[in-house]
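>> received
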Amino acid sequence: MLFMLGTLLIAMSMQLDRRGLWNMLGPVLCAVTALVAAWVYRGVKRRQCYPKTWKRWLFYLIPGIATAVIGLSVYVFTETDDNYYYTHSIWHIMVASSVVFLLPPREKYKEPWGWSQKYIFCGYQICKNEKEELYTVT
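>> returned
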């Protein structure tokens, strides 16, 4: 529900002022607040700093932050009406790339959301209705 509300608010603010400061700063501040809150929660829960390894910083967080900053710089400093289609495409590519790097890893021993394999029944069962002499597949 909150994702949908945030999306609608961003869409409305972009219609009012496409290049406004708060159109970028508002979502970025919310994202950084959520990120820091999640890291503090994990750190308190595990009783150690998160992320705990230098590999996580070197291979995921630094490239993710760098691609986000480059994308934001392209959006803010180089976008004009003449090159809008190119720079806006680059902006979307860079932000999507940063999301790939910045998503947290999956918990190792946690069952995935959704249907697991033990609940999926393979095959069909043919039933015969004696009254109507119809065969149905259920």
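>> The helical segments are 2-16, 21-46, 54-78, 84-102.
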